[in-house]
Structures are given as C-alpha cells and as structure tokens.
Design a protein that fits this description.
The protein has one domain (about 10-145): Electron Transport, Fmn-binding Protein, Chain A (Pnp Oxidase, Chain A), CATH 2.30.110. Helix content is about 20%, strand content about 40%. The chain contains 3 helices and 8 strands; from the N terminus they run αβββαββαβββ. It is globular. Pfam families: PNPOx_N (PF01243).
C-alpha cells in the first residue's frame, strides 16, 4: 500500500471528515447476512439524518429478508482510499409506516418517493454503534472514531 504524502489526521478531524462525507455521499455498500442464505452485499442510496443512515429497498429483496432475520449490518462508503465503515443494528419500517420526516428527507435528496411506487418497499434505519475511518496505512492506528454510539475526539 502506498503511503507517500498521507498525513495522519487527529481523531477530531477524522470525525469531522466522516460527518461531511455522510452528509454529501449518495451511495453506501450494505452488508447483511442470513442464517440460511449467507452473506449479501449491495450498494443502496442513503440519507444521513445526523444520527442514523436511512436506506430503502424492495420489501421482498434479499437485503430486506436478511435484515429481518439478522439486523446486525455493516455499511461502507465507496472510496477505498478514504475508508468509512459503519456497524450497527438495522431497524425496519414498511413504506406505509416510515416516519414522515425521514420519508420526506429521503425523497428530497433523491427526487424519488418509494411510497408512491406500485410495489412495497422497506426503509432501513441504522444508528451506528461503531465507525472506523482511515486514509492509508498511517491512519490504521486510531481508525475507530465512534465506539458504543459515541463519537470520539
């Protein structure tokens, strides 16, 4: 791994950078697992509400099936040179039961309202318990920027 030019950021800076990316990014990788079907990974659009990640998927999708059976999930932003990994427990909301403010914010960000579609959708909310963030090998030490749901630094 090339490390030339990478300066180790203090934890507070990593937290700030992570929060900025969560607010600005569009896609997140969602990793789930089912006891009978094994692991599953898929990119989804997401919304960061300042405390939780909100995603939406078809109610009959493998992701929906998996989070209902095993709600522990891992999420990853797509840039491998500026890694952000989140881990938490998924909470599921059928499209007709999602909190209105979350649905409005999701629609506002993407210009798409799953509740208006013909099929059924499942909103998935993940409050991270652990967040790791690093840029290259010099930042591997101290990469945990959230522990037990509390930001560090």
């Amino acid at each position: 791994m090339e490390t030339t030019g990478i300066v180790r950021r203090p934890t507070a800076e990593r937290v700030r950078d992570t929060l900025e990316r969560l607010g600005a990014e569009r896609d997140i990788w969602v990793s789930t697992a089912h006891p009978d079907h094994g692991p599953h990974q898929v990119p989804l659009w997401f919304l960061w509400d300042g405390r939780a990640v909100w995603m939406c998927t078809g109610a009959a999708s493998a992701t929906a099936r998996n989070v209902r059976a095993e709600p522990r999930v891992r999420l990853a932003l797509p840039d491998t040179s500026d890694v952000v990994l989140l881990q938490g427990v998924a909470e599921c909301f059928p499209d007709r039961e999602v909190p209105a403010d979350a649905a409005r914010a999701f629609t506002g960000k993407f210009g798409w309202d799953p509740r208006a579609e013909e099929g059924s959708f499942l909103y998935v909310r993940v409050v991270p318990g652990t967040v790791r963030a690093w840029r290259g090998e010099p930042e591997l030490r101290g990469r945990v920027v959230m522990r037990d749901g509390a930001w560090l630094g």
